[in-house]
Amino acid sequence: METQLTRIAELAKTNHDMVFTSLAHLLNEDNLKQCHHELPSGKATGIKGVTKEVYGMELDDNIKSLVESLKKKAYRPVPVKRTYINKPGTTKKRPLGIPDHEDKVVQRGLTKILNAIYEQDFLDSSFGFRPNRNCHDALKILNVYIEKRYTNHIVDVDIKGFFDNVNHDWMMEFLKHRINDPNLLIIIARFLKGGYMEEGKYFDSDRGTPQGGVISPVLANVYLHYVLDLWFEKVVRKQCRGQAYMVRYADDFVCCFQYKSDAEGFYSSLIKRLQKFDLEIAESKTKIITFGRFAEEDGKRAGRGKPDTFDFLGFTHYCGKSKHGKFRVKRKSSRKKVNAKLKQQKEWLKANRTKDIKDIMDRLKRSLNGYYNYYCITDNLMVVKSFLYHVQKLLFKWMNRRSQRKSFTWDKFNLFLRKYPLPEPKIKKNIYELKKSLNYIL
Q1: At what angle do helices 410-419 and 381-399 cross, to 10 degrees?
Q2: Tell me, what's the pLDDT at 295?
Q3: Contact between residue 169 and residue 176 where contact means Cβ atoms under 8 Å apart
Q4: pLDDT grade, residue 296 (50/70/90)?
Q5: CA angle 259-264-268, nearest 5°?
Q6: Distances (CA, A) of 306 to 226, 292, 303, 320, 383
Q7: How confident is the model at residue 179, as a pLDDT?
Q8: Integer Cα distance of 231 and 257 in angstroms
Q9: Sorting pLDDT into bands at 50, 70 and 90, what band is 88?
């Protein structure tokens, strides 16, 4: 399959107007088996309750039957099982759809095909859920735009319920710019219209992408590529008097402007642009702020205090200075994200405090290492160390509640941590180190 996808990618790259008319045949037995093996094990199951392991016990027969139904156009995805997960920093819940395993297999095959085509079209301003582009890369590029370009104003935008409000008709129109294989388009349309089950009841899905599904990120990127990225690049930037840049990660994006009038004009135009495609901004979470190398001086002249801050990808960005007194963008973990993570740690320790102490400490180590890998970036080490201290306090509290008898004094607890040490945070990512691919963008 990789050879076939490489050829598709080459054709898509050399001819950006090319429309692909024959793609559904790539969803054959060999390729779908490969997709099955690539899916992770131990994940939550859909409404049929079939795990990867169970499906794999009769893999040949299952895949053969699946391919036959695809060829006959009889394949219909099973409605996803809807569950709800906590939304960090709030009491709200975020809906999440869990597809059946067989549907995950088909979605993975579709995702590979769509990525092969659209990776050649997606702009450099887009970072979310794309190969060799991650959150840290988005932060690095944003850092360059603010520190090295003429950025004086930031438009921090939040799209209200993006994944739940994607218009299916527009989505299919966007896909037809590059794909004219009716068989493949029918399968994608059926995923969009597949519906969901909640508390034993079936609900239609007349809008939105199958959030939680393997295919959801690439569909979201296709939608925003046409709705936002191309519009910003071809229309907005040309209309601006000064410099303008955008960094987008999925539906979360930040725009940098040299002049306030450009920022305000973009904000007004953005509302109308999103309305055209059945989207809207969350006004309470969207703002225009003065930010950059002159923000502090402008604030003093206007009688304001410190420059405003903005949150992006889990970090609060604020205006700071280097050791030599030069302007620098600095980042620290968003307070909302820190509090949400500490609450999660507290709930886990409370529920599992009677487990074997080795298992508890092993789980904490893995959790902290994962946290460090993301949040241990330039300028944020002290905030992460503070997070570790609060985790230790939670551990001390709940280890003392393993029984009715108090187990630890703080001195004994420190001795315990010598025996079962928690990992210390160290800088993992240097925001000023750019990969060759990022240098190409700049």
Answers
A1: 110
A2: 86
A3: no
A4: confident
A5: 150
A6: 37, 12, 10, 10, 20
A7: 97
A8: 16
A9: low
